[in-house]
Specification:
Elements lengths: L24 E2 L5 E2 L21 E2 L18 H4 L9 E2 L108 H40 L22 H8 L3 E8 L2 E9 L5 E4 L1 H4 L7 E5 L5 E10 L4 E6 L21 E6 L7 E16 L10 E8 L11 E3 L5 E10 L2 E4 L10 E5 H14 L4 E3 L13 E2 L16 H4 L7 E5 L2 E2 L3 H9 L6 E8 L2 E8 L1 E3 L3
Antiparallel strand pairs: 1-2, 3-4, 5-6, 5-8, 6-7, 7-10, 8-9, 9-10, 11-12, 11-14, 12-13, 13-17, 14-15, 15-16, 15-17, 18-24, 19-20, 20-21, 20-22, 22-23
Length: 573
């Protein structure tokens, strides 16, 4: 066993765990040479390196456990001593120059604190583990939630428990390096993500309070809107549920027979709508059933275009349609009869007495104004024996009708022509034929609409003409046998100078000739009723039948006389 070499210190040095003790270099023989050490006050004056010898201890003795100083960054290396270095024993101090003796370290007596190998630090560096005067204070470290064991982490995330170096924040960090690292944060997380500093927390709290206030305002607005809607529903409808209105049951029984509804119910089945087409164009009108054989009465001006080979289509109240043919017509009376064949279940309308009608009687008009079939209107009789003329489009007077009409305020319009005007017993008392237009009465197809002045042909006159048209195909006109001067502007009707063909104005052997009526005489009254013109005289005459007797007042050379005559008959030209 080699002897230990003398040293200048009471106790030997233990080599650093790394194999070089503060810069010493180990020799192959187990000795080491220490480099020069800096001198400091209180250190030995010798500057030569001091050899340090290591003596192998008894194998049975335990090595001396000397705590080596821990330097940051060297902890991992200090854990394992060199494998080639045997356990060391500390040589005991010599007394009086006695030779060295090998004493196990655990048997050595306590000695005074060993002096450091190096001279004191002139900068007063504090021991390891204590912060220096220039080191920043460590930040407050707050624990943050970390992923639970078994939580799936994205690829590249360190395993649970693996230390992860701090991730620097973008931009300058407050508080130096310690402000950029939170050891309690989740791996790879920034300090800012785990709550930041106190200022950030205050801002978050203020933002949270702002969000709560905003949510409260929105909730209040929604609650107010809902409350307003509920209040509106309660005020207007009395509740929030489905509104069900009370309704009385229908009236039982039929309408009164003399009511408008009762009259219409009995009359409508016998009323028809006519659509006529022909060479002169088309026409629209109304008619009503006269008998069960299919005869229908209407106006001549409605079916006039069918006389040249046109067609007539009849539509009944129930919607059934049928073709009809023209039986006959008379422009002077503005009446015509058509007939349908192969139709059963017809409802003829009863005919009343137009002479028995009084002004103010309630009447109902039924027709198809503007092609609105089965339209019902009501009114009263406004006047009787109202002389009107209509037509005259041809210019020769052959299409002029002379009617001693019933006037009514029941609304009638184009399309009502030929329809029935019925009384309170649902009896026909007239045939709607004309309405008042600018310039005087006119047929309904020449006017824009009703102004409350409608005119109907009295049914007594229509009945006679219809019978003649059905039985003979033509109607006769009552006459007195004179030609009138239609240009006379005085009161009454003046007998003309000559006939249209150049013959005498008074027909020889006729009713007027037998009562000594001559050319130039003026007829002023018929049955005591004044006449103002030639048209009115014709209307008064045609309101009677051939064979009826009339009383006329005639003026000649300023003298008036009264004559009575029997009406003659003539076929229409």
């Amino acid at each position: 066993m080699d002897k230990a070499k003398p040293t200048g210190t009471p106790d030997g040095t233990v080599p650093d765990a790394t194999g070089d003790s503060h810069g010493t270099t180990a020799e192959p023989g187990g000795s080491a040479t220490a480099p020069d050490a800096s001198t400091s006050p209180g250190a030995d004056a010798a500057t030569a390196p001091r050899p340090v010898g290591l003596t192998k201890a008894d194998p049975a003795a335990e090595p001396l456990e000397t705590a080596a100083p821990t330097v940051p960054g060297q902890a991992e290396e200090a854990a394992v001593p060199p494998a080639t270095e045997p356990p060391a024993t500390v040589p005991a101090p010599r007394a009086g120059g006695a030779p060295d003796a090998v004493v196990p370290a655990q048997q050595q007596a306590p000695a005074e604190r060993p002096r450091p190998l190096h001279a004191p630090d002139p900068y007063s560096t504090p021991p390891y583990g204590e912060p220096g005067p220039w080191a920043p204070a460590p930040p407050v470290q707050r624990p943050v939630p970390t992923p639970a064991h078994g939580t799936y982490l994205p690829p590249g995330t360190p395993a649970h428990g693996t230390p992860v170096p701090p991730v620097p924040e973008a931009g300058p960090a407050q508080g130096g390096e310690w402000g950029r690292y939170d050891p309690w944060a989740a791996p790879g997380a920034l300090v800012a993500e785990s709550g930041g500093g106190p200022g950030e927390r205050r801002r978050e709290r203020r933002a949270g309070r702002g969000r709560l206030v905003g949510a409260a305002l929105v909730l209040a607005l929604v609650a107010g809107a809902v409350g307003g809607y509920v209040g509106m529903r309660l005020e207007r409808h009395g509740g929030l549920g489905t509104v069900e209105l009370e309704q009385t049951s229908g009236q039982a029984g039929e309408r009164a027979p003399d009511s408008v509804a009762g009259i219409a119910a009995r009359t409508l089945p016998g009323v028809v709508t006519l659509h006529v087409s022909g060479g002169d164009g088309g026409a629209l009108g109304t008619g009503f059933v006269l008998d069960g054989r299919g005869h229908i009465l209407t106006n001549q001006h409605v079916v006039e275009s069918a006389s040249d080979g046109g067609s007539i289509r009849v539509t009944f109240n129930g919607g059934e349609t049928a073709r009809a043919r023209l039986v006959g017509g008379d422009p002077g009376y503005d009446l015509a009869v058509v007939k349908v064949s192969g139709v059963s279940g017809l409802t003829p309308l009863p005919l009343g007495d137009s002479d028995d009608v009084r002004v103010g009687d309630r009447v109902v008009a039924i027709g198809a104004p503007f092609d609105l079939a089965n339209t019902v209107t009501s009114g009263i009789i406004s006047a009787k024996e109202r002389p009107i003329t209509a037509g005259g489009e041809k210019g020769d007077g052959t299409d002029i009708s002379y009617v001693d009409a019933l006037q009514t305020d029941a609304p009638i319009n184009p399309g009502n022509s030929g329809g029935p005007l019925v009384d309170e017993r649902a009896r026909v008392i007239g045939i709607n034929s004309a309405i008042h237009a600018a310039g005087g009465p006119a047929r309904q197809d020449d006017s824009a609409g009703s102004v409350g002045l409608g005119f109907a042909i009295p049914v007594n006159q229509a009945k006679r003409v219809a019978e003649e048209l059905i039985n003979h195909g033509r109607a006769t006109h009552p006459v007195i046998g004179v030609t009138l001067d239609m240009g006379y502007e005085g009161e009454g009707a003046k007998v003309g100078g000559e006939a249209a063909g150049g013959g005498p104005a008074v027909t020889p052997g006729g009713p007027a000739d037998r009562t000594d009526i001559a050319a130039g005489d003026v007829i002023t009254e018929v049955d005591g009723v004044p006449v103002a013109s030639g048209e009115e005289l014709i209307i008064k005459i045609r309101s009677h039948r051939p064979g009826d007797r009339l009383a006329l007042t005639v003026e000649r050379d300023g003298e008036s006389r009264r004559v009575t005559l029997e009406l003659g008959s003539s076929d229409p030209s």
